[in-house]
Amino acid sequence: MIGRSRATPSGRSPEVVLTELLRDQQARFAELDTGLPPAVLPPPGDVVVVGDGPGGEAAGVVTQHSWPAGSAPLLWSAAEVTELHPVLGHSGRRGADRLLAEWPGRVPARVRAAADSAAVVTWPSRDVAAARAFLDHGLVPLAVLAVRRPGPLAGVLDRDPGLEVRPAGEDDLEGCVELAMHEIAYSSMVGGSVLRPDAEAVKRTALRERWARGEPIFLAERDGRLVGLLECGLTEATPGSWLAGLLPTGRWGYVNCASVLPGHRGRGVGHALVAAALPALQPPGVRGTYLYYNPPNPVSSVFWPRHGYRPLWTLWEVRPAAALR
Ligand SMILES: CC(C)(COP(=O)(O)OP(=O)(O)OC[C@H]1O[C@@H](n2cnc3c(N)ncnc32)[C@H](O)[C@@H]1OP(=O)(O)O)[C@@H](O)C(=O)NCCC(=O)NCCS
C-alpha cells in the first residue's frame, strides 16, 4: 500500500513505476552486495517519480515520523524525521540526484521549521554511485549497520588477569546505566546520539526491559569496579518485517551498546567483552550478528571491523532537515 502520489512524467501511475523499478532494484542490490536481502517496496508515503526513459527513471517514497518525548529512539535520533526510501532501479547516481533534488519540496513545513529534525536515507553501503549523490546534497554517513558472519573470533588476545567478564545481574542496573551514559556522551560527539536531559531515565527503562526479555548483557570488572558494558540482544528478521528489509530473514544476534569507562579504553576490555558475548549471540542456526557504529567514531570504526564486522547499510543523514540541499 502506497500513500499520496502524483502524476509521473511518463503518464504511468507512480505505483506502477515503483513496482517496475523495484524489480531492477532487486537485481541491482544482488549485484552490489550478496549480503543484502532482496529489495522490498518502501512503506506507505508520498511517492516521487523523476526522470524518464529506460534507465533514466527513478522513484522514491518520502515518509515522516515524530518520536514522542521520553521514547528510546530519541537517544539516537532527531525528534522530527523525514525519510527518503529510494527505488532507483538502474538509474544510479543520476536518478539519486534527481530524487534528492525533489525531496526538500516534499518535506512538511512543520519538519522544515523544527530545529530537532533530520533528513535520513538508509542505503546499501557499497553503492558508491548513490553515495556521491547523497554527499552532493548535504547528507553525511552518520552510521552504518554492520554485519558479521557467525563464527569464532580470529585472534582472541590474552585477557589481563585482573579483568573479570561476567553476565550482568539486576543488581548491576545503576552500574550499567552509568557505563551506557558514557557511551551516549562519546557517541553524541561523533554520531547521531543526543545527550537529552531524560537520557538516563530512558536508558534505565530500556535496560530493565532487556533484562525482562532475558537478553544477554555482559560486564567487565577490574579491582571491584565496573569498567565495561556490552548490552546485547537476539532478534528475528521475520518476512515482511522492517528488519527483513535490512537483513536476510532468520535469527540475528546484535550489540546495542558497547562502553568502556574513560581511562580504561585501549587495554583490551572491549575485546574481552566481545569474546565473552559472541557465543551467547550465536545460538545454532543464527544468520549472524549485527550492530550500528558511527564512521566518524575514531575508536568504534576500527574496533568493530577488527572484530569481523563490515558495513552493509549506511545511514545518510543531515540535521536539521532544512539543511538538505
Ligand atoms: C569502542 C570501545 C567499546 C572499545 O573498547 P576498548 O576496551 O577501548 O577496546 P580494546 O582495548 O579491546 O581494543 C582497542 C584497541 O586496544 C588494543 N589493545 C591494547 N591492549 C590490548 C589488550 N591487552 N588486549 C586486547 N587489545 C588490546 C586493541 O588491539 C585495539 O587496537 P585497535 O584499536 O588498533 O584495534 C571503547 O573504546 C569505548 O567505550 N569507546 C567510547 C564509546 C564508544 O565508542 N562505543 C562504541 C559505540 S558503537
TrEMBL record:
**Xref: PROSITE patterns:** GNAT
Looking at the record, the residues that make up the N-acetyltransferase domain are 163-325
Q: Do you know which InterPro entries this protein is assigned to?
A: Acyl_CoA_acyltransferase (IPR016181), GNAT_dom (IPR000182)
Give the superkingdom in one word. Answer: Bacteria
What protein name does the entry list? Answer: GNAT family N-acetyltransferase
